[in-house]
Amino acid sequence: ADAFSTNVKSLTLYVFKDGKFVFQKTEEGSLLEREGYRMRLDEIPYKQKHEYDYVTWAGLKDNPNFSVPILQPGDTKDKLTCLLGRKHEARASEPAWIQANLQALYHGMVNGADASRAASSVADDEILVSLTKNTNTVRVILQHYSAEPLNKDQFTFTITDKNGLMNYDNNLLEDEQITYYAWDTRQ
Fold this sequence. Notes:
This protein is mostly beta strands. Helices cover 9% and strands 26% of the residues.
């Protein structure tokens, strides 16, 4: 099912030509809630759409845990990264950590050479950018065999990985190890 209209609250499109940043456009709110949402790009002539590369990050504006740098015209694609904020203090045993509900973050990309093919799958003047969800929620549920209650404070679950820095193409870049702590525990 197309979950875009119910899950995406903000969308930023970054446009590149010959590997250099040209402009970006952000839309958010009720505009994205319409079924069949389309972003108009009047800045690009129809016949030139295949000369540009399109990178999309969705969910950044309403997600304080992720950040991207401000690009200037002429900056290369490699400057477009997405960084997960993390903390370094208070937990001496972990060099970098986070304990927060990571809101949905999506990424999509269409290179200029693929733009005509992407357009042919929809309307002639449209380019379809499919999104990949980068964030997930992991739930751990414990139940004692005897059905006796468990004390949630006796358990700690963490996930560790080096996955807090993504490149424009959504590939992971070299990063420090991050420990993810539970942001919600219940009994």
